[in-house]
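One such shown below:

_____
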Amino acid sequence: MEKVGKEGVITIADGKTLLNELEVVEGMKLDRGYISPYFITNQKNQKCKQRPLLIVAEDVESDALATLILNKLRAGIKVCAIKAPGFGENRKSGLQDLAVLTGGQV
């Protein structure tokens, strides 16, 4: 409890072993992935870090996605696009939480 503080979230899940494990996540963990692997900045741990522009959408059309990827690769534009987390009302709530955390807008 001390590690997450009064605003933190604690999730308990059944494991595949008899050992107890603790994982502390700084920030927010989403249940969806990148729209394209080209947005990954660290191949070893599959992360995209320090991106000034984060696009969260159900999908990005092929032409728009190609433009984003080309601008990232050729012009060095710092962008990352991920799939929107959750479904229905949970999605709306999750996007609002993400907006608060990042200073973005829904």
Q: What stands out?
A: The chain has a mean pLDDT of 83.
